[in-house]
């Protein structure tokens, strides 16, 4: 696997992250939603990038503003978390399908846990589709435990979410 760097998400990353959202989720966050969330004082967003990576043209869609993205983008994944008091809630984690099963998701989560510790967060929560067994396996491998179910949490398709928690 090529080297993966994890860093804070910047405004310039938003278009690429929005494309990633479209590839990964049935109800993706828009560029506007990502920008709004990025500027919140209680949010943390990280991106995974690979130096000198050339991604294939077909990975990218044309965003709503009509501007074509640079096909030498280095962003391969991202994670977001909101914090409240001493808890963090992971909002989203996504990795381009071409780069999955290479440890990038685990690295993003591990870095987010480290960020949480620096902010005196003691517990991290997340929701995952009940059918997403690969993600559940990853979260359990990283020490998350099933701590509840949210009925009909997801739309398109309608599905329950497993709530997973980790004390850090």
Explain the layout of strands and helices.
Layout: E1 5-8, H1 14-24, H2 31-38, E2 43-49, E3 75-84, E4 87-95, H3 104-118, E5 123-129, H4 133-141, E6 145-154, E7 159-167
Parallel strand pairs: 4-5
Antiparallel strand pairs: 1-2, 2-3, 3-4, 5-7, 6-7
Mean pLDDT: 90
Shape: globular
CATH class category label of one domain: Alpha Beta
Strand order of the largest sheet: 1-2-3-4-5-7-6
Total strand segments? 7
How much of the residues is beta strand, in percent? 25-35%
What does this structure look like?
The chain is of the alpha+beta class and 168 residues long. It has a domain at 5-120: Gcn5-related N-acetyltransferase (GNAT) (Aminopeptidase, 3-Layer(aba) Sandwich), CATH 3.40.630.30. The protein has four helices and seven strands, in the order βααβββαβαββ. A seven-stranded mixed β-sheet has the order 1-2-3-4-5-7-6. Strand 3 and strand 4 form a beta hairpin. It is globular, with a radius of gyration of 16 Å. The two termini are 28 Å apart. The model is unreliable at 57-69 (pLDDT under 50).
Can you summarize this structure?
This protein has 168 residues and is of the alpha+beta class. It has helices at 14-24, 31-38, 104-118, 133-141; strands at 5-8, 43-49, 75-84, 87-95, 123-129, 145-154, 159-167.
Question: Notable features of this structure?
Answer:
seven-stranded mixed β-sheet; 4 helices; 7 strands; 33% strand; Aminopeptidase; 168 residues; globular; alpha+beta
């Amino acid at each position: 696997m090529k080297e993966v760097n994890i860093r804070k998400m910047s405004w310039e990353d938003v278009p690429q992250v929005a494309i990633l959202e479209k590839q990964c989720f049935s109800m993706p966050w828009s560029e506007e939603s990502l920008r709004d969330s990025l500027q919140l004082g209680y949010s943390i967003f990280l991106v995974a990038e690979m130096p000198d990576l050339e991604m294939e043209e077909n990975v990218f869609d044309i965003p709503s503003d009509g501007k074509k993205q640079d096909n030498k983008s280095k962003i391969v994944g991202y994670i977001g978390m909101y914090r409240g008091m001493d808890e963090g809630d992971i909002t989203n984690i996504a990795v381009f399908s071409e780069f999955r099963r290479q440890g990038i998701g685990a690295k993003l989560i591990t870095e987010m846990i480290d960020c949480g510790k620096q902010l005196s967060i003691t517990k991290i929560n997340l929701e995952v589709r009940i059918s997403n067994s690969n993600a559940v396996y990853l979260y359990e491998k990283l020490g998350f435990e099933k701590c509840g179910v949210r009925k009909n949490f997801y739309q398109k398709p309608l599905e329950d979410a497993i709530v997973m928690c980790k004390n850090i």
